[in-house]
Design brief:
Helix content is about 20%, strand content about 35%. With about 300 residues, the protein is α+β, with helices and mostly antiparallel strands. It folds into 3 domains: about 90 residues, 2-Layer Sandwich (Pseudouridine synthase), CATH 3.30.2350.10; about 130 residues, 2-Layer Sandwich (Pseudouridine synthase); about 60 residues, Archaeosine Trna-guanine Transglycosylase, Chain: A, domain 4 (Roll). Strands 1, 2, 3, 4, 7, 10, 11, 12, 13 and 14 form a 10-stranded mixed β-sheet that branches. A 5-stranded mixed β-sheet has the order 15-17-18-19-16. Strands 5-6 form a two-stranded antiparallel ribbon. Strand 2 and strand 3 form a beta hairpin.
């Protein structure tokens, strides 16, 4: 007689793990492994890294998943190595070489071209991407040899710095807005230099307020005797927002979804309007919008009941 498979009981785990994603893993594969190590019931990541890329992949567990969208919208910083003189069908090392050209560029030419890509630019998303058309990701069409028209998207390159150049390898540091494809940026820089290019390496070093400090590899996570101790608190995702501290009575009303007029209340209120993180003592209650006349409008709430 076949025994019924016993379903694994997952734990309620809250927090943020700053994972150093290894090369060859999809972001979802890395998430699944980390979720298994932590035995977490609920988890999500904050924006994908291509399998060939490495670096900072913030993973959210439990209550932290409510705020993962904030990092999807955040600026990101990368170190990348652009291989000049070769283009591939994917724009990175995972693709087939489709064109080879001589590399005869000077540092002066490189600096001039990089200046063209700073600030607001338009990018055409690559065919090898997870963007969907008629319910199918573009990479499925690409693998079938089909190329579809794609509309250019507006992105912002906040910083684009030359780190090193030793032909044909061009090392760059990039800080950019959400939705930026570094693969496309590398290809476009190569075309502007007249020799073509693809990405040889890509490493993400910052996502919003989160940096590589306290980042841990997947192997180290698996080997750690107390992996839960590696989690940062939920509000690590919200460090860039001003804090509002409420009294116990106001906290109860806030968690019931009530808008609060803070103008005459004995609470800590930042001097500017906008998104804030809200606390009772040192306990995060959620995020809110602080509007005119110090009106606090609840946004996303933590499952927390004040004592």
């Amino acid at each position: 007689m076949n025994q019924a498979k016993v379903k694994r009981v997952r734990d309620l785990v809250d927090g943020v793990l700053l994972l150093d994603k290894p090369v060859g893993f999809s972001s979802n594969d890395a998430l699944i492994k980390a979720k298994r190590v932590l035995n977490a019931k609920k988890a999500g990541h904050t924006g994908t890294l291509d399998p060939f890329a490495t670096g900072l992949l913030p993973l959210c567990f439990g209550e932290a998943t409510k705020f993962s969208q904030d990092l999807l919208e955040a600026d990101k910083t990368y170190d990348t190595v652009v291989h000049l003189g070769q283009t591939t069908d994917t724009g990175d090392t995972e693709g087939e070489v489709i064109d080879t050209r001589d590399v005869n560029v000077t540092l002066e030419q490189i600096h001039a071209v990089l200046a063209q890509f700073r600030g607001p630019i338009a990018q055409v998303p690559p065919m090898y991407s997870a963007l969907k058309r008629d319910g199918k990701p573009l990479y499925e069409y690409a693998r079938a040899g089909i190329t579809l028209e794609r509309e250019a998207r507006n992105v912002v390159i906040h910083k684009l710095e030359l780190v090193a150049y030793e032909a044909p390898m061009l090392t760059l540091s990039v800080t950019c807005s959400k939705g930026t494809y570094i693969r496309v940026l590398g290809q476009d820089i190569g075309e502007a230099l007249g020799c073509g290019a693809h990405l040889n390496a890509l490493r993400r070093t910052q996502v919003g307020p989160l940096t590589m400090e306290n980042m841990i590899t997947l192997d180290a996570l698996i080997a750690h005797p107390e992996p839960l101790s590696l989690l940062a608190p939920v509000d690590a995702l919200l460090a860039s927002f001003p804090a509002v501290h409420l009294s116990a009575e106001l906290a109860k009303r806030f968690l019931n979804g009530q808008r609060l007029a803070l103008g005459k209340e004995p609470v800590t209120v930042p001097g500017e309007e906008g998104r804030v993180r809200v606390y009772l003592d040192d306990k995060l209650l959620g995020t809110a919008i602080l509007g005119e006349y110090s009106i606090l409008a609840p946004e996303r709430l933590i499952a927390f009941v004040p004592q």
